[in-house]
Amino acid sequence: MKHSTTQQTRRGRRGPAHRIGRTLALVLPVVLVLSGTLAVTRVNWSGNPAHSVLTASDVSSVSSSSKAVQRAPQEVLRDQLLAELQEKNPGAVLTHLQQAVNGRPSLARHCTSIARALGEAAVRMYGASRAQSYARPVCDTSFASGVLAAHG
Question: Which of 116, 46, 38 is closest to 74 using CA atoms?
């Protein structure tokens, strides 16, 4: 009988430290999750320094608007190369196209359409005969076919 009496006394003697520990074990995870959630909503995820505080309701509007703004990599590359064509000759731009395709092989299937667009733009800028002088075998003969399409 002494054994059962000792267990009851031990259970009955659990002090305030045990109660505090039990309370912390229940409350602490909740506090950590809430503080982490609040911290994430306060971070400037927009990339715009003007919006230094982003609320949780803004997160959904930013993510939906950024999906609409994102463009395919081949569109970005095409636009960059067309802009570069305004400053440099078509030979340099074709070299950059080839480097981009070599560096990112997933762009290879779009190389033809990009080179064709560059050829058409080169005709508008330089005229057909001068644009044709820059033709090289980048993406087969797509640049030359773009020149021909714009001229003919």
Answer: 116
Cα distance between residue 70 and residue 125, in whole Å: 29
Joined together, the tokens standing for residue 47 give: 């990339």
- Token pair of 76, please? 């970005």
Q: Can you tell me the distance from the alpha carbon of 97 to that of 112, in angstroms, rounded to the nearest whole number?
A: 10
Could you tell me which of 116, 97, 117, 96 has the C-alpha nearest to residue 107? 97
Residues 6+ apart with CB under 8 A from 1: none
pTM: 0.52
Q: What are the tokens at 33?
A: 């999750």
Taking alpha carbons only, the member of 90, 139, 134 closest to residue 114 is 139
Q: What is the pLDDT of residues 116-136, one digit of tens each?
A: 999 999 999 999 889 889 888
- Cα–Cα distance for residue pair 30/130, rounded to 1 Å: 71
